Amino acid sequence: MGKVLMKGNEALAEAAIRAGVDGFFAYPITPQNEVGEYLSLHLPEAGGVFVQAESELGAINMVFGAAAAGKRAMTSSSGPGISLKQEGISTLAGAEMPCVIVNMTRGGPGLGNIAPAQSDYFQATKGGGHGDYHCIVLAPSTIQELVDFMFEAFPLAEKWRLPVMILGDGALGQMMEPVDFRGRERLADSRKQPEWALTGAKGRKPHLVKSLFLHGDDLYHFNLRQQEKWEKIQAEEPKLELVAMEDADYAIAAFGSMGRIAGSVIDLARAEGIKLGLIRPLTLWPFPNKAIAELVGDGTLLQRILTVEMNLGQMVEDVRLAVNGKIPVDFFGSPGGRVPMPEEVLAELHKIIG
Amino acid sequence: MAIVAQKPESLLDVTTHYCPGCGHGVVHRLVAEVIDEFGIRETTIGVSPVGCSILAYNYLDIDFAEAIHGRAPAIATGIKRMHPDKIVFTYQGDGDLISIGGNEILHAANRGEKITVIFINNAIYGMTGGQMAPTTIPGQKTTTTPLGRSVEREGPPIRVVELLNTLQAPSFLARVSTHDAKNIMKAKKAIRKAFQMQIEGKGFSLVEVLSNCTTNWKLEPATANRWIAENMLEFFPLGTVRE
Ligand SMILES: Cc1ncc(C[n+]2csc(CCOP(=O)(O)OP(=O)(O)O)c2C)c(N)n1
Ligand code: SF4
Ligand SMILES: [Mg+2]
Prior knowledge:
- The complex is a heterodimer.
- Chain A is of the alpha/beta class.
- Chain A folds into 2 domains: 3-199 and 224-236, Rossmann fold (3-Layer(aba) Sandwich); 242-353, 3-Layer(aba) Sandwich (Rossmann fold).
- Chain A contains 13 helices and 15 strands.
- Chain A has helices at residues 8-18, 33-45, 56-68, 79-84, 86-94, 121-125, 143-160, 170-174, 218-236, 256-271, 289-295, 315-323, 342-353, and strands at residues 3-7, 23-26, 49-52, 73-77, 99-105, 136-138, 163-169, 176-180, 208-209, 240-243, 250-253, 276-281, 283-285, 304-309, 329-333.
- In chain A, the strands form 3 sheets. A 7-stranded mixed β-sheet of chain A has the order 3-2-4-5-7-6-13, sandwiched between helices. A 5-stranded mixed β-sheet of chain A has the order 10-12-11-14-15, with helices on both faces.
- In chain A, strand 11 (250-253), helix 10 (256-271) and strand 12 (276-281) form a beta-alpha-beta unit.
- In chain A, helix 1 (8-18) runs parallel beside helix 7, helix 10 (256-271) crosses helix 13 (342-353) and helix 11 (289-295) packs across helix 12 (315-323).
- Chain A is globular.
- Chain A starts with a strand and ends with a helix.
- Chain B is α/β, with parallel strands linked by helices.
- Chain B has a single domain (24-242), classed as Thiamin diphosphate (ThDP)-binding fold, Pyr/PP domains (Rossmann fold, 3-Layer(aba) Sandwich).
- Chain B is 37% helix and 16% strand.
- Chain B contains 9 helices and 7 strands.
- Chain B has helices spanning 23-38, 72-82, 94-100, 102-111, 151-154, 160-164, 181-199, 214-217, 221-235; strands spanning 44-48, 63-66, 87-93, 116-121, 172-177, 205-210, 239-242.
- In chain B, strand 5 (172-177), helix 7 (181-199) and strand 6 (205-210) form a beta-alpha-beta unit.
- The longest helix of chain B is centred in the C-terminal third of the chain and has 19 residues, at 181-199.
- The radius of gyration of chain B is 17 Å and the shape is globular.
- The model of chain B has no long low-confidence stretch (mean pLDDT 97).
- Bound molecules: thiamine diphosphate (TPP), iron/sulfur cluster (SF4) and magnesium ion.
- Residues 50-53, 69, 93-96, 120, 122, 124-128, 133 of chain B line the site of thiamine diphosphate.
């Protein structure tokens, strides 16, 4: 099989199978239904398990059980469904259970709409549920990248014993693009059982998967250990893409689908002689602070950053923290599931740079 | 000299956090005995609830997952689907199982998940200090029904075994009690049967166990057990309804 034309949600599902998912548990919600539909047929054929859960609460807790069993567990949802999963996600983080959660974001708040949006950035990157925790958050902007991130997601989750969230949106899930799966066949289960997995206490002491720390300072120390882990993740895992930044006077900062639209804005601006570049974080948590900070140090050309998001201004806060006041960071947002045109973004840029 | 009774191997030799006379301890022992008798200690995985028995894993010498409130059947589903060769059971209180977790138990039962559920009905929320449970009986005083549960206001108690008996999938559904020795023996038999169903691959099994909460009923243990006989049995008839 060479390149194939696939819908984002189906490509993600196929990538999950090839990436070795053992159990997929989800409840239907638009705009990600094709993920579950595809897996309901093809995952059992590949030797895995598909369960249509009774709700997102059921789904995320099935993920918890399957992850605790030492297997590769995954769920997918959007908007209200991701909100419902939050107690479970907090508990997965609290029990240090690796798993993969996909959010094909739709417009919010509330039921909102089913159009593509990026308004779950805060929820995804700042914890989302109760307590101090972070998921690792990957933000693809093409279907190929969605597929590539799916292959990275389980190893990352297992390396750090944390949930990994793939934060897409309705556009990415619904559009069709050619994708390349070459060299990525599903492996027969070659993965070693993690040493903490629940497999029955045969010839060993019982294993316990839990998030309760009742005694004395146990929770204090658990939280401090998490902090150490976060510091390592922040040092090792941030990723971003820089486009045409070598000589850029201005930059657009954007993630996911918006990052892709911003690519067209760069071309339009450059055709007018504006030296515009693109800063596109690929990991939203850990946020690529350091790499962005380096763009605005002494002797750099960059004068201004326009952060563009399909929300009312969420990632812009992290961009501002990274830039730390060295240059102005502006914001242009298109909320409510409305995808802005490159020309609109360019007009916004004109307003800012005069 | 022949040993006629001893601590089950699957029960750890530790002091529990349960209040003196609490039924949870009795039921833990029954579960441990059954695990020993089937020789499944090394292949059994438990799921503890949120409720007084959250720490069940401190007393049973087997692998355990700690669930969040009400979701034990979903977690057990995840484990069992990944390890169909293992014996997976949940241990849940009444608030956990049929209030916050009503949907999870209903659907796990309806899917016929091959798990066993030990359901402790003590007609109250023990852990949080004695609030009304879905199984609180009419007239019973709790901290949130200070004048007694009113059927008009709060509805009558939910009968879990009868409710689940409307589904086709379950393989075993029974209600037992722990208020005296004879009933404890019967409870053991039902728990044994429920695990046996799973061992034989027969699908979802649940045993509802009537059990005291001495502390929140504000009764000393003997009186609390009598209270089960005199008040709970009327609303929760004992017996096996599905086999
Ligand atoms: C989401 C959530 N809501 C509420 C609680 C608080 N809570 C802990 S235990 C409990 C009730 C437990 O009662 P039951 O299930 O009957 O168990 P028992 O203690 O009586 O054995 C509640 C409401 C919680 N831990 N999590
Ligand atoms: S509060 Fe009630 S249910 Fe909980 S341990 Fe004490 S007696 Fe048992
Ligand atoms: Mg109770």
